[in-house]
Amino acid sequence: MADFSSTPDRSGLEPELGGIFRDIPERTGFEPELGGQFRQNGVYVDEVTCIGCKHCAHVAPNTFYIEPEYGRSRVYHQDGDQEAVVQEAIDTCPVNCIHWVDYTKIKDLEEVRKLQQIKPLGFPQVHRDPKPKKGHNS
C-alpha cells in the first residue's frame, strides 16, 4: 500500500484511502467507506440463521455475496449499493437474518461469528437438548 503520510494535502480520510481504517480497533462510523457522517450503520448477516436463498445477493450484488463453503450470505462491501437498495435486500430476506447495526459493533459481531459453528444447509442449526422436557411424552 502506498504511504500517504508524507503528502501534506491528504488527511487520510479520502475515500480511496478508506481501507487503512479497517484494522483500527475503534470505528467511529465516520469512515469514508460509510459515506462520512451520513451513514453510521452497517449491515450484518447472521449466517447461522441464513438459509442461502440468495435474494439479498441478487438485489444488492455490490454489497452481498454467497459464501462458497457454507452457502450463506455475507457482506463484503458496506457501501457497495445505495442504502435504499440494501434496505430492499433486507426486506426480501425470508428469515430476517440481515440487520442494520451500529458500525462500531460490526467488528465484534465478526469476531463472534468466527467462533460459531455453521453447519451445512439442510442440517438443523439449533442445538437441541437430547433430554425430553418435563410434561412432554416422547
Task: Give the helix/strand class.
Answer: alpha+beta
Distance separating the two termini? 62 Å
Largest sheet: 2 strands, antiparallel
Q: How many individual helices?
A: 3
Supply Rg. Answer: 19 Å
The CATH first-level class of the domain at 41-122 comes to: Alpha Beta
- The overall pLDDT, averaged over residues, is 74
Which strand order does the major sheet show?
A: 1-4
GO molecular function: electron transfer activity; iron ion binding; iron-sulfur cluster binding
Function: Ferredoxins are iron-sulfur proteins that transfer electrons in a wide variety of metabolic reactions.
Keywords: Electron transport, Iron, Iron-sulfur, Metal-binding, Transport
Protein name: Ferredoxin
Kindly describe this structure.
This is Ferredoxin. It comes from Aphanothece sacrum FPU1. Pfam families: Fer4_13. By secondary structure, the protein is an alpha+beta fold. It has a domain at 41-122: Alpha-Beta Plaits (2-Layer Sandwich). The chain is 20% helix and 13% strand. It has 3 helices and 4 strands, in the order βαββαβα. The protein has helices spanning 55-59, 83-92, 103-115, and strands at 41-45, 64-67, 72-75, 98-102. It has a two-stranded antiparallel sheet with strand order 1-4. A two-stranded antiparallel sheet has the order 2-3. The longest helix is centred in the last third of the chain and has 13 residues, at 103-115.
